Amino acid sequence: MYPLDVVKTRVQLQTGKAVAGADTYNGMFDCFSKIIRNEGFSRLYRGITAPILMEAPKRATKFAANDKWGKFYRELFGQTQMTQSLSVLTGASAGATESFVVVPFELVKIRLQDKASAGKYNGMIDVVMKTVRNEGILAMYNGLESTLWRHILWNAGYFGCIFQVRQLIPKAETKQGQMVNDIIAGSVGGTVGTILNTPMDVVKSRIQNTIKVAGQTPKYNWAWPGVATIAKEEGFGALYKGFVPKVLRLGPGGGILLVVYTGVMDFFRNMREAKGL
């Protein structure tokens, strides 16, 4: 699904209204066709090393943090079972925790995905070296605040919806039925999470793609002021640039994620039981 992420980023980084030209995009399909026609098919996969390295620690942190925060909040509020509100709070906390893992990888990915980076960077390591050398080591965490908001909103929507959907649909009697239920719950959660966090994702992309220069305040520096600037200059709809490729990736991706997590946890649980642990 990585090409969808490249297209999403390209559209998000485009400021103002699209006009005709090789460097502007009128939507997802226009972006796909122009990248392939003008830059080559392989460009759809430029920068993929960073998210590949990021995925394992990112997803592990997401679910481990969600589990730990869930136990913490249940004890804190004296609840024996999860509730809708606790699921939202737990998801938000897990998202905030996850953010600290992903920010450097996201920054590298964004800068490699931008068309303007073609002549600037030779790959992931080159991005890291030039960013640290020219902007300082802390620059690797540019966009941390907007990333926090992005992950808080997505995970709150994701885990909150999973809880609610599981309560609404019939309980599965078989493993196949459980898989279908997880696909439905995870896909709904991924879609709702994407609706909630896309404005922050747009701002985050622009913040992380901005080269910091000493003595100059970037146009996009903080999350909520960035949202206000985009809405004022480009209209409210601009806050949802890249939404279609993003939801096509994270909607079904949320379902796949939940199915794989549940399956892997069941596998290890059965292994522990077989060994009598």
Question: Roughly how much helix do the residues carry, as a percent range?
Answer: over 70%
Low-confidence parts, pLDDT < 50 over ≥5 residues? none
Mean pLDDT, all residues: 91
Q: Name the helix and strand elements from N-terminus to C-terminus, one letter apiece.
A: HHHHHHHHH
| Distance linking N and C termini | 38 Å
Shape: globular
Strand content: under 5%
Q: Rg to the nearest angstrom? A: 20 Å
Largest sheet: none
Question: How many strands appear in the DSSP assignment?
Answer: 0
Which structural class fits the helix and strand makeup? mainly alpha
Annotation field: number of helices: 9
How would you sum up this structure, described in words?
- The protein has 277 residues and is an all-alpha fold.
- 71% of the residues lie in helices and 0% in strands.
- Helix 1 runs antiparallel to helix 9.
- It is globular and about 60 Å long.
- The model has no long low-confidence stretch (mean pLDDT 91).
